[in-house]
Amino acid sequence: MGRYLNMDVQFNEVDVPPIWDLGNGNTMILNKHINAMVTRIGSRHVIDLNIDEYEPTYEQRYIDDRLALAQHYNNKAMGFLVENDHVQALRFLRKALHMEPSVSYLWNNLGSLYRRAGNLQAAELSYLAAIEADEDDLIALSNVTRLYEETDNPELAAYYEEQAREFRLQNPYFIYSMAQKAFVESDYESAQEHISDAIDLNNKEHRFYFLMGAIYQKTGDVNLANDNFNKALELSSDPKQQNRYRSKMNRLTAANT
Questions:
Q1: pTM value?
Q2: Alpha-carbon distance values, 125 to 51, 94, 109, 121, 225 (Å)
Q3: Can you tell me the mean pLDDT for 175-188?
Q4: Which domains does the chain have, with CATH numbers?
Q5: What is the Rg, in whole angstroms, of the alpha carbon atoms belonging to the chain?
């Protein structure tokens, strides 16, 4: 739309901290983030439909139209996959891979589609193509591990599970997702252990400290809760994010009084 109005607009991919959705125990979803950047008279303006996830300090880069279009086709495919429309999902994933055949998550999604459709051989080849494109693709490693377990290939399952395990142990954001899951389940001891491990790996992420504060709030240690909340505020450079934290802090305090 901006280009139609002769504006200088580029697609912009943002490295929001990766968070894995492990909600139902069987599905792992890694959400990615893209917005638009408008340049006017030497200054840049962000156009973002989900501005709550965006911070200007995140690593980001312009991407070309082919990759943006591939991501669009991928999103369409995942929508059809959720609706169990495998034909349309395959149609859009093939269009996405035609645009960008070297993107790992496109191959991984194709593997998940084939697996749901019962074509395990095609699923295996797709997952392996994803890993070839990105050897650190945790979701592809987990998917192919599960596939080999289900098809009675224990040696291959063990090989890829070890690779996935090493990645999990060194990735603070995956550990953070485990802490979130434990917190939602009211397992505050496990949540605290996980978030402590995440902070050991990355002590500059404000969301880690906010979750630690929430855990202490739930377990009745008000002083440590406030210390971690203040640390989260200190590390967050976005005034809007800081206001959201203050609002959440007030709600947590009210709920525990």
A1: 0.73
A2: 37, 15, 12, 6, 48
A3: 92
A4: 1-63 (no CATH), 172-255 (1.25.40.10)
A5: 21
